[in-house]
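Here is the promised in-class demo. Please do not try to memorize the tokens; focus on the logic of going from shape to residues.
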């Protein structure tokens, strides 16, 4: 049998060891967080070097992917409306779905695999074009433009 003093020392040593393990684990987590932060900062700097039109194209594709994810979470799936979802509740409140209605358009978007590709590519191109036009800004070489009407007399 262990006496009370020996048992108390044993518990204190176990507690100390647990604290040491927790501290070393915390240091590992801090180190990993610092490494991740440095990596993300490096990645962001590299991303800023990518041409603006390409970055905006990617943003457009990500926006489209987020839109499709939201539709999926609401209940519009490639196999149809998911049972028990918000889309199913909406469908039951409508009854017969009219062609061209918002519900039918959203359902068609999620059911047609080609719609993902076409709309995603379209959103990417549109985002790229918007970024290209926005990045042009005012031009300094306007004096090189030949005027339509000259005022010189011959």
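The designed amino acids, position by position:
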């Amino acid at each position: 049998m262990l006496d009370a003093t020996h048992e108390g020392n044993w518990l204190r040593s176990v507690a100390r060891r647990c604290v040491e393990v927790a501290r070393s684990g915390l240091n590992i987590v801090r180190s990993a967080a610092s490494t991740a932060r440095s990596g993300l900062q490096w990645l962001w700097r590299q991303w800023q070097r990518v041409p603006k039109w390409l970055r905006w194209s990617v943003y457009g594709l990500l926006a489209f992917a987020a839109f499709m994810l939201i539709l999926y979470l609401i209940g519009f799936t490639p196999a149809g409306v998911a049972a028990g979802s918000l889309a199913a509740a909406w469908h039951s409140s409508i009854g017969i779905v009219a062609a061209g209605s918002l519900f039918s358009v959203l359902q068609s978007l999620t059911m047609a695999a080609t719609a993902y590709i076409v709309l995603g590519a379209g959103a990417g191109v549109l985002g790229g074009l918007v970024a290209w036009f926005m990045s042009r800004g005012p031009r300094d070489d306007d004096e090189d433009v030949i005027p339509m009407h000259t005022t010189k007399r011959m």
